[in-house]
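# nightly structure sweep
# worker-07 picked up a monomer target from the shared queue
# config: single-sequence mode, recycle default, output format = structure tokens
# input follows
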Amino acid sequence: MRSLLFVPGDRPERFAKALASGADAVICDFEDAVTPATRSQARRNVADLLRTTGRSVPLWVRINPVQTSDALADLAAVVAARPDGIVLRRRATAPTCTGSITGSRRSKCNTATRAAPSR
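# output follows
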């Protein structure tokens, strides 16, 4: 895929424009673009979109961090409507690597993640 367009789940007036944008996929967002106060409505909006649209492009859903109760509520709201995919939260920190990847030597990476800051 070359282009992914994120659209806030609590802005249904933007759904048609996003689908017609020419993006390779549309990602309905529950995380960054949606406030806690509007998440319930966003879940209903996106579930309705998934059930009723003809899917001219793949429709994915970005859920809230998996360690929160919001993630389970996000999934419960949309899984029956069969999104084309689920997008998980980006890493809070990048892995730190040392060493070299030359010859038979391999770098050693610390891939442990720290808890993301709460919002």
